[in-house]
Design goal:
single chain; 309 residues; Rossmann fold; 2 domains; 8-stranded mixed sheet; 14 helices
Length: 309
């Protein structure tokens, strides 16, 4: 089976923002198929190093090939939530020149029906980024309570009809447990009374279930806080988000760390007491029209950059 083509979103912009020291130690928290990592390595000299993370066993296989090609690179089969622990093990905590997080699901994961991420293709209802551990989406939708399903669809999918969809899921599974993506998509679509133009009626629900199965937002929050312990002064944090929930977390974190401690109004404090830990670099960056034409999935991408003080 041929591999789907993978486009690294905001490739030039993210690498330009990330690499400020050609001899530094960098982390690619979402290796994917290595597009960003290869571009970073092209900017590094012989002393530079790059560590990649990924949950996906197929991404790890691609990373192991890159390890053999370039001794400056190494790969870790883990979530970027483990940033702090891995950096401590490798004795680079506080000495990392830059961290890149390209969030969400990769094109190969979406395009391979057998991974179970897509409502556009029928496949096993899996959705796990790391297929070697955890419960599948099928196991979750067949066992979670109606209240829990509704909560996940509402919180992670911002789905207005979450309760209605949850009732439909629970009613269907009593007769026939869910095993396939199309089966779930059809039940959710039928429970959605107001279809949005140019958007599949199961889009938000599938996003929500994927986030729940892969612990995406909690992992992101953990990684952002870990970055503060791992980065060196002047080190860059570059994050590419693809939906409002992710971007809201990143924006709030960077603003809080740039603002520092909050004191009562009128209380005289010094800059040191504010404990600023980040400086926001530039404005948010979006994909160019040319990139969106090449890769439609880049249209929702938002990149934010900050530098550790």
């Amino acid at each position: 089976m041929s591999q789907p083509e993978h486009f690294s979103v905001l490739l030039r912009e993210s690498v330009d923002a990330l690499v400020q020291d050609a001899s530094g130690f960098y982390i690619d928290g979402t290796f994917g198929r290595g597009g960003h990592s290869r571009a970073v390595l092209q900017r590094l000299n012989a002393e530079g190093r790059l560590l990649g993370f990924d949950k996906d066993p197929l991404a790890i296989a691609a990373g192991e090939k890159l390890e053999q090609e370039d001794q400056r690179f190494s790969i870790v089969h883990d979530s970027f939530a483990a940033l702090a622990d891995i950096a401590a093990q490798r004795e680079v905590a506080g000495r990392v020149a830059g961290i890149l997080l390209d969030l969400g699901v990769s094109s190969p994961q979406l395009d391979q029906a057998e991974r179970g991420f897509s409502f556009m293709q029928d496949g096993p209802l899996d959705m796990r980024m790391d297929t070697s551990r955890g419960i599948s989406a099928a196991q979750w939708v067949n066992s979670a309570s109606e209240e829990e399903i509704a909560r996940v669809l509402f919180e992670y999918g911002e789905e207005k009809f979450s309760r209605r969809m949850a009732r439909a899921i629970v009613a269907h599974r009593r007769e026939s447990p869910f095993t396939r993506t199309r089966q779930l998509a059809e039940v959710i679509a039928a429970a959605n009374p107001k279809w949005e133009r140019d958007k599949h009626p199961a889009t938000r629900a599938f996003q929500a279930i994927r986030i729940e199965i892969n612990n995406e937002l909690k992992d992101l929050e953990q990684a952002l806080h870990a970055a503060m312990a791992v980065l060196q002064p002047g080190g860059r944090l570059v994050v590419i988000s693809f939906h409002s929930l992710e971007d809201r977390i990143v924006k709030r974190f960077m603003k809080q760390e740039a603002r520092g401690q909050i004191f009562p109004k009128g209380l005289p404090v010094t800059a040191d007491q504010l404990q600023h830990r980040l400086r926001i670099i530039g404005k948010t960056v979006r994909a160019s029209e040319e990139e969106v034409q090449q890769n439609i999935r880049s249209r929702s991408a938002i990149m934010r950059v900050a530098e550790k003080i």
